[in-house]
Sequence to fold (261 residues):
Amino acid sequence: MSEKNGKTSELFRHISEYIGSEWSSEGYEFGGTLPDALNALFENKPGLYVIGARPANGKTTLMIQKALALGKDENVYIYEADTVWEKIRDRMATALFGNISERDLYVRRKYVNAYLKSKPIYLCTEQACVEEICEELKDKKGYVFIDYLQLLGTKQSSESRCEERKIILGKLRELAADRPVFVFSQVNRSAAKNLGWCPAPDSIRFFSDICKYADSVTTFVTMSDEDGITIADFSVYTGNCKQPLICVTSVIDDETGLFIG
Fold:
């Protein structure tokens, strides 16, 4: 047994004693798996895939659910510049265990730490430029998640944010030549003016830039339906981004924020 696995097993033993039941990284039934319809949005072949939504619509939760599910068997590299580690850890705990009482939160946090140590999941919560990410991953294989596009910088000088974005997307496209790269992006209100997600005039350039480099652009918006159920409507675009190629609707659990159906 490796030193890492040995320390992880020891930590699980202490947690088991604390809560009075047997826990193990292999035996626990993962509770945050995405519905099959949403899994289809995440390609397992090399390519650059962009997922966009307005703030507070669930982008980070969506990323965590998919990354944790993939991380059971595959290498997963997460670059999270928008949310501090403590909040990411607590969201992971919710994805793994569902709604958590304050009494159980401490042990759940311990479990998340142990879970990540036992799985091929690598998390960076420091802001990084695109060149640093590409250099770090050049000899590594696995799935890459970046949250989010607007926080990425570059070492190259540029005259405008538009030019800088093109440089960043070009670098990410090179990185995605031999692995799936999922990049999450903020979408402004004008781009979300209707459920079809056809971009408004001031967002045409933003979507056009992305679509020149990305294999697909997925956008989604959350809302309550006529029965008061929170849902998320997803649209997948390719090419010129005028009409969605695929449309998917998912139900969101109001207590946990997880995508459940």
User: Anything to note?
Assistant: The domain at 3-251 is CATH 3.40.50.300 (Rossmann fold).
